[in-house]
Amino acid sequence: MARVKRPTFKRRINPDEELSPRVIWGGGAVLLIVVAALFWSVWKSQFAAPASYLFDTPTLGAEAGYCLSVAQMIVPSGAPIGSYFDEAAQFWVKRLRDLDEDMGKAIAKGRAKLAIDKQAAREKSDVWFQYAMDQCSLKALNYGAHFRSFD
Questions:
Q1: For residues 87 and 147, what is the distance between their CA atoms, to the nearest angstrom?
Q2: Using CB atoms within 10 A as the burial measure, which of 11, 44, 145, 147 is most buried?
Q3: Tens digit of pLDDT for each residue in 65-100?
């Protein structure tokens, strides 16, 4: 008896489909690898970014001087000892001491920049001081500050 060879044809779940399951699963794997590589590169690059200083201050010392000035000037009559504003001022003084810059020049640069920003804010300078205090406090937390007044 002679054997008849059966015709071979590709198996597809749906014959109208253009893409095979191998292409779909392979493309999904490639997409997953690309997304993982992009996630890793963004995560890695955040640590390589250059330091940015608050309110376009030129140096770390000027930034610390700016924030020190904000903490000292936000309460016109002077911040009570042990208050949040006093703690912030103490943190920025310590930060200035730890930097390798002249404290007087750094504070002068920070105050000059603060005066420019305050003048630009005009009648909303009180709101500007509150915003600046908030931003300086967030930056202080990034530098490792801990405010006991919030405990």
A1: 7
A2: 145
A3: 999 999 988 887 777 888 889 999 999 999 999 988
Distance CA 46, CA 113 (A): 27
Cβ count within 10 A of residue 15 = 8
Contact by Cβ (8 Å): 74, 130 = yes
| Token pair 């205090």: residue | 133
| pTM of full prediction above 0.85 | no
By the 10 Å C-beta count (0-12 exposed, 13-18 middle, 19+ buried), 62 is classed as buried
For residues 64 and 96, the answer to whether their CB atoms sit within 8 Å is yes
**For residue range 8-26, what is the model confidence (pLDDT) as tens digits?**
766 656 666 676 677 777 8
Distance (Å) of CA 22 to CA 15, 25, 35, 76: 15, 5, 20, 71
Longest distance between any two alpha carbons in the chain, whole Å: 112
3-class secondary-structure state, position 77 = coil
